[in-house]
Amino acid sequence: MTPQTLEQIGTLAGAVLTLCIFSYLLGDNFLYRIAIHIFIGAAAGFVLLATLESVLIPWLRVTVLSTPLELPRLGIGLLPFFFGLLLVYKSTPRLSRLGDFGLVIVLGVGTALALLGAINGTLIPLVGAAAREFRPENAINGLIGLIGTISVLIYFTYVGLRRPSGEVTQFLPVRFVGLIGQGFIALTLGATYGLLILSALTVLSSVVADRLFILIGR
Amino acid sequence: MTERPMFDDEDLPSWLVEAGITFAGRRARVGASADAPPWELPQRSLPDLPPPLPAPEEAPPPWATADSLPAAAAVDVPLEEAPPGFQTEQPDWLLPAIEGAETPLAALELPDAPMPWDADAPAESGAPPDDPFSDLDWMTQSPPAADQPASPTFKTSWLGDAMLPDAMREAAESAAAANLEAVPDDWLSAAETPSQQPATPTFKTSWLSEASPTEAVPEADSSAWDVDLFADSAPAEMPAAPLGSTTTDDWMRDFSVEDALESDPDPTAENSPTLPTAPDLSWLGDAAMPQAAEPLSATQSADWMRDFSVEGDLESAAPTDADWLSKIDLPTGEDALTEVAAEPASDLPDWLSSGKVPDALDDLPAAEPADAMPDWMSADSAPDLSAELADLAAELPNASEVPDWLQTGYLEPRTESAPPPTPAPDLSADAEIPAWMRDLAPAPPTPSALTGSSDIATSGMDWLDQYDFEASTAPELADIPKPSRAAPRSANLEAGLEDELDIDALLAGTDVPIASDPDLLPVAPINLDEEFDFDTLPDLPPPSDLTAHDIFVDDVLPADVLADLPPPAPATPPVKPSPPSAPSAPVKATTEAAAVSELPEWVAEMRPDSSPTLMIGDQQVTLEERPLSALPEAILALRERLKQLPSAPPPAESKDSQLSNIPEALQPPSLPITPAPLAPSGALATAAQLAGVQTLRKIAAAQESILKRRMETEASAPPSLKLRARFKLDRLLLTLLLVAAVVLPFFTDLDALVPPPRHANLDAAGQARFAAVSRAVSSVLDGSPVLVAFEYTPTAAGELDDLARALLRDLLQRGARPVILSTNPSGALHAYHVLHQLSLDPAEMQLLGRSSPLVPRRDYVVLGYLPGGVSGVRALANALYDDSFQQQVIFESDLEGLPSGISAQTMPILRANPVFVLAQSQDDVQTWAEQFHAPASAPSDAPLRMVIAAASAATTTLQTYATADPQRILGTLIGLRDALIYRDLRDQYADAESQRTAERRWQSVGFTALSAALAILLGAAFGMIRILAQRRRAQ
């Protein structure tokens, strides 16, 4: 069996499984479920192998199993396993408190990185870009961007005034600007949704062209 | 069992110390062996004992008449046969008796052979803190001095004195030798005269009553325990006794006359394990049980006491089981009765003064002269010593420490009673004992014993025989009767109580005054496990408030027995009757709670093991029982109040009830519930509220009708339709429409409808964007490694594979070596697959100008999965600048685990070349845009640059970041359209057909998107028209 044959078998199997997935248009059925199970199982198995071969073994080889053995490297090499072991305790209600320590490390590091990245990689560049847009030749775009940003921020303002009747309402200007921001949000979400549809249609077209046409000989 | 002391000697009141009821007394008999239990370790001496009172020379026992003296030969025992301790350390009160060989006490001269108690520690040693038998130390204490009047210490301590050589030694050293001469030698013989034993109430050793006999104790053990009570070692360790006994259980045998024993062998010796030859105890039998029907054999008799007698054979000894006290305490004789009758009425005990003198007292012996009696007997019997006793009691540091039986002059009857002064059936002492101890205790002596009934011989002190006080270890808890709420008293005890009702009747009739306060009832807790302080005993109220009847009503006697009791004397204030619904529940509950809460540990362990179990459905919940005293006082008060509430008798509780197994559970009182009159409706709700109620009712009714209709529909539908999926035609039509739109461009030419993407057709801005990407690719040095991030899964391959191939072709054409990595395991594998397919396509290889396929790790490197998501990207950025092991982890091996060939020298090149990111979603774009920054320590003039190729869904985010930071994001490629344009720009089509096929894909996507947009618009319009139509119909 040549690699080309294996490739053709793989292509045919992919086409058949694609049809099984498409059979969900007719409702939940056995073919759809078996295709889903195959994909999930294959993905899980591959992730396990990839984690072992690409993550754990290289890590141990470089840290714990390195020669000559260095104590700092050994400690650092065992540290992730310690935190991982703590996370295992989350599965037991009695020892879940120990797992909180591992979870704190994961969430703390992730949150810190996300916050730092959001400030340095998103907020500051976007503010600078919005400021740079205010140029005479691009005043309209800058104004649209400014209005859109302010109105959306005002839309998410939840400060109101309690009327004598007990009803809580916002000031009329705030409501008006918030309504503009709501429009910007709708447009953004609509564009995003349209782009999502475009991506899905692209994938569908690719699948039809690359796989289903094989079944019909094209 | 714990070895902690029941109480410390230091905490004992002085009168108890003087009485020898100390823990040290027990320790005095304990050997110094290393393996001895704590309570047998050496004890300290008793220096605090008051000096003995001078022996009243005119205090002979009343029965010690001259004609009743036994023959001298009967007690003629060689001195060398007595234990060593007894040879030299006899108490002073015994010294006169043992002075002459012709005296009966000469028999006390034990041989020099080491006796079991010889191994015991001297009395000078310190007392261990733990000894559960501390209350038995009266047996081991030194005897009272000759000049000491009768006191509570005299109850049985004289017996212990005879057992303890050390104590005797101390007493002998301290006693004056004149006492030996002052006291007649024949007193003991007189005392042993059976027919002249004076009547005396049997003093109840209530503090020993906790060691009550149980059914679990075999009868054979009982005899053994009886022996061990006064023997310190096993029979095997017993030295050769002069009396030729094979066992050591009858140490008192050494007191008896050897000649008498030898000359008067016990015909039942064959059956007796302890006493081959027993002396005559007929006098005891005659005295204690003049009406005894059947004389018992030696095996059934009190062995040691039998030895104590100096004459008579055992066959004539009528006493039954081993109650030496009963034998001594129950004399008969007209003389004694006469003497008792001669006493002033005030000095007589109540049971005598009440006129209920037993018939046995008719045979009391005549009183002996005081000078013919030993000091202890004379002290006990001399009427004038009552004043001394009162003075002594007055000298106590705290009068409250003196038990009531002492304060009330209960010992006064003993003045005319006979020795040995056994513990009195002190009702006030009983009042100080909690109910549980009284339950464990044997039944008190009955009036039948006083009348000479055989019951006294069998029930007086038999319970004491059940325990081995001389054993090396304390009795096991299992051997101790365990009180149970379900069965608080054993059958034997109750039977014994029923048999011994007369004593209660007698006590009740004599109006023995005792505490009457219900809170101070005899269930006052005594924590014997902890350091017990007798000072903490509650002060009993004046002895005119409560009678014995009050005590035994609730705690001792069962109800049926109580009914048979004679009513209390008129002088006794009647017990306050409780309501019929809750008879004496509050008092009993309070006292029981107090007693349970302060029980010692070993007693607490004897409480019922089984916890109450709640039956909740099919589940059992075992409740942890806690003492009532643990509850707050407010709850306890509420509990008492609830019990006092008059309520109807609770209905018969079924076994299925949740509280069926909880005896202490509080039943809810059946309070009369009167339905409150309904308030007017107008006062309950306003009109608006009523309208709201009506609205809610309508909603509920509508919901209920809908549910009902649905249920009816489902029930009426055929089974085939129930399982069949609901088919929606509109969705099928839309699906078919989209499929047709996707397929149609491949079979027809739609260039007019969807023009193919060409670079030439782009505007200037569009061309500039592609030009930026082209420049970025061109900036890659030939043959240099370049990072390519495959941040997409195979699900997005239909869109991003074209972009990936376009970038990889361009990079490979420039001789760059793509180093592929991914934060997604599937992304890395898919990258490997893409490159593999690319290398297998000859057209692609021809396009790349290669004649051979691509070789992994040489032409390209697919690194392993980069874990951590955001953290992984950040770690990658740091690894490009830091040559730590993190760099090795990321770049050392590829996806297959083989060396990638990337070293630290490659890092500057990787930093200089832009990174090509293939992002599937907005999150991927955001992650790389935010995290792929050079660290702060890196030079600012060499930022990490990147080219991001993303799917159409990430267009907005990518454009935003690209616009905001154009210095880092060199160019962007979005979706299939940009891929086709870039291929057109970089001339990556092998031929026109391949370009046409690729453009048809875009036309397919475009046409399908157009169809989908039209479908959405049509759907929105249809929905709007439908809504308007509904509103019109609604209007």
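The two ends of chain B are 92 Å apart (CA to CA).
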